[in-house]
Amino acid sequence: MERKPFVAVIGGPKAGKSTVIRSLTGCARGTPRHGQVVRDNSKGSEIYVIDKSPQESGLTLSELKWVLDRNLRSRSILGFVIATQPRQTRSRTSMTQIFETVSKRSNLRPIAVMLDPPYHGTADRKSHQDVQTRLGRFGINVRRIDGRRFAHLSACAIRKISNLP
Predict the structure, then answer these.
(1) 49 in Cβ contact with 154 (< 8 Å)
(2) Which of 37, 41, 86, 164 has the most CB atoms within 10 Å of its CB?
(3) φ/ψ of residue 112, rounded to 5
(4) Residue 86: CA count within 13 A, CB half-sphere
(5) To 10 degrees, what angle do helices 95-103 and 61-72 make?
(6) Average pLDDT, the chain
(7) What is the pLDDT of residue 42?
(8) Assigned fold of 14-162
(9) CA 126 remoteness from chain centre
(10) How many CA atoms lie within 13 A of 112 on its CB side?
């Protein structure tokens, strides 16, 4: 069975994560906390999108597991896209917990893309290295994408990295 891509767009608040995800998938603003299925009507394929980070929306780890398990069985869903923040948190689902959960599912191919520099701000080499260190234990290489570019250019780069349609 082919592994479905699980793409995490990583960045701090106001980094441009949701804008890039909307450009990548065509999802609407204000998606539900649990995310939504975005359908390509020309091909009949779908991508599951969570465009608000769990740190902002309060998506729990058990809710994420439910979303993954429920949608991995669907043949029409080609992959998953999620926004997440790199900050470590005790009260909300963290980036590390997300990737730990994803890495335990053999039918998912985790991909991490960090907006660095973010839409507002400058590049933070230390932050990228920290994220790479934290996700490296799961065998994940964090790719950097310049968040200051047009969102559709970042979406094209993610499409190329992940093989999402």
Answers:
(1) no
(2) 86
(3) -115, 125
(4) 24
(5) 30
(6) 90
(7) 82
(8) Rossmann fold (3.40.50)
(9) 21
(10) 27
Tell me the per-residue pLDDT of 113-155, one tens digit each, with 9 for 90 and over.
999 988 888 877 789 899 999 999 999 999 999 999 999 999 9
Ramachandran region of residue 107, left (φ > 0), alpha (ψ -120 to 50) or beta?
A: alpha
Structure-block tokens of residue 81: 């896209």
Closest CA to 80 of 49, 114, 118, 119: 49
Q: Could you tell me the sign of the dihedral formed by the alpha carbons of 67, 69, 71, 72, in that order?
A: positive
CA distance 5 to 17: 17
DSSP bridge pairs for 120: none
Token pair of 64 as six digits: 């994420």
Q: Is the pTM of this model over 0.90?
A: yes
Q: Helices (DSSP H) in the chain: which residue ranges?
A: 17-25, 54-57, 61-72, 95-103, 125-136, 151-162
Quick one: tokens of 34?
Answer: 């649990």
- How far apart are the C-alpha atoms of 128 and 50, rounded to whole Å? 22
Distance from C-alpha of 27 to C-alpha of 126, rounded to nearest angstrom: 32
